[in-house]
Amino acid sequence: MNRILIVEDEQVIRDAVSKLLRRNGYDVSAVESVEAALETHELTDFHLLIVDIRLPGRPGTDLISLASPVPVLIMTSYASVSSAVEAMKQGAADYIAKPFDHEELLVVIGQILKQHRQERARQALEQDVAETWPTHGMIGESPAMQAVFQDIRKVAPTTASVLILGESGTGKELVARAIHSHSPRRDAPFVTVNCAAIPENLVESELFGHVKGAYTGAEQARAGLIQSADGGTLFLDEIAELPLSIQARLLRVLQDGELRRVGSERTLRVDVRILAATNRNLQQMVDDGDFRSDLFFRLQVVELRLPPLRERGADLLLLAEHLLRKTCNRLGRPCMQFAPDALESLEAYHWPGNVRELENAIERAAILSDQELVTAASLGIPMSSPAPSPEADDSLSLEDYFRRFVLEHQDNMTETELARQLGISRKTLWQKRQRLGIPRQKTASGK
Questions:
Q1: CA dist 246 to 17, 80, 255, Å?
Q2: Share of the chain above pLDDT 70, in %
C-alpha cells in the first residue's frame, strides 16, 4: 500500500484530503507544518508527500530536498505561474492549485507514483554494474534448460518465493532477472543483494535500514535494501551466508510483510517478492543447525535447479559462439571464429566455473588473439579434465548425485544396472529422468 504524508496547516483541507485518499486505498498520515513532519515522521518512509507552499514556520518547499528521493506534490491557494515554476525548479514532482477537483488530484497522484516506481526501477538497473547478461541473453536448447525455461514461465506471473539452486557460475541471477521481467512487477525495482559480500556487522543495517543515531556513524536515516525493493523484487544471492539472527528478521518480512529499521520502534509495511539463490545444500545446513528450517520452507515454495555447464551438451558451443560475438562487439573487434583445436578444447574441459568461467576464457582469448581465429592456446584451458566423483562431494544434494551418476554411467550400463546401483526401481529411475530433464539416450546396443 502506498504511504502518503499530507503537510497542510488548514485542518478542514487536511482532513478532507486525508479522507479522500484513504477512501481510495492509500495509507495516509497528516501534519500541520514542516517542523511537525520532521519531528514525527521519517520522510523516506513515504511514497509521496503532498505539501502546501505557505505553512507556519518553514515553507513547504523546504521538504522537497529534505524528503528526496521521495516525490513532493506542491499545492497552494496562491496559484501563480511564478510559484509553480519556482517549486518545479526546486525539484517538486508536480503542482496543483487549490481549490482542486478531487478526481484531478487522484489522477495527478497516480501519475507521480507510477513515474516514481519507474525511476526507481531504472536507477536500480543502472547501479547494478555487476550484471553480465541481459535477461534476453538466456540461451539453451538442452532438455534440462528447456525445463528451466518452462518453470520460469510458470512461476513468473505469481507472487511465490523462489529458491534458485545451482553451482557457482550457472546463471542463477540471470534466472532471477527473467522471473522479475516476466512478472507483474517488471516496472518496479529489481534489487540484488550478495549476502556473502556484506560484512556481518553491516548486514542488518544494509537490509533493513536504520534511523538517525541508531549507532555510531549513523548521521542520517537510511532506507534499507528491502525497502528499496518495495513493490518489486529482492534477489538474495548466496542466502546461505546470512547470519541466523538476520534470517529470523527476514522471515518476518516473508510472513507478514513487515520490517523495522535498526534503532526504530516503528513497523513499516513492505510489498516485496523475494527470490533467493545458493550453491550450497540448504537442507544439510538446516540439519546441521546453520540455517533456519522455517525460513528454508518459506523460500522453497518453488525450487529451480540449474544444471552445470558440463551437463548441457550442445549448449556449450551455442553459448561459446554467443559469448564470442558479444565480446567482439564490446571490444570493437571484427567478428572472430573458433579454430578446430579451440572447439576440441572447449568440449573436453569440465568447466567447474560454468558459464562465468567460459565467458572469462573467451574474453581472454579475444583480447590475446592477433588473428581472427581463437585457438586452444589463447583460451588457456587444458585439453581434458577429469570429472569429479559425486561420492567425493559432500555438498551434493540427492538430485545432484542422481544427475551426475546417470550421466556418467548411462553409456555403459543398462537401465536395470543403473537402477540397482542407485538403489531404486526402473520405474523410479524413469520418473526421475523425466522430472530432471535427462531422458535416456538411445545407443546402438539398445541399452
A1: 39, 52, 14
A2: 87
- pLDDT per residue over 392-402, tens digit each? 344 555 667 77
Residue 373: strand, helix, or coil? strand
* The 94-97 sheet, strands edge to edge: 27-31, 3-7, 48-52, 72-76, 94-97
Query: Is the Cα dihedral 329, 331, 335, 340 positive or negative?
Result: negative
- Residue written as cell 507483474? 184
**Which 3 state secondary structure label does DSSP give 362?**
helix
Angle between helices 143-155 and 172-181 (to 10 degrees): 40
Average the pLDDT over each of 211-215, 221-225, 239-243, 327-331 and give the range with the smallest value: 211-215
Tens of pLDDT, residue by residue over 223-258, are 889 999 999 999 999 999 999 999 999 999 999 999
pTM for the full predicted model: 0.62
CA-based nearest residue to 73, from 88, 51, 106: 51
- How far apart are alpha carbons 353 and 310 in whole angstroms? 10
Q: What are the cell numbers at 101?
A: 477537483
Amino acid making up residue 380: G
Q: Please name the residues in contact with 119: beta carbons below 8 A apart, sequence gap of 6 or more.
A: none
In the structure grid, which three cell numbers stand for residue 293, read together?
Answer: 528450517
Helix ranges (H only) for 27-158 are: 34-40, 62-66, 81-89, 102-127, 143-155
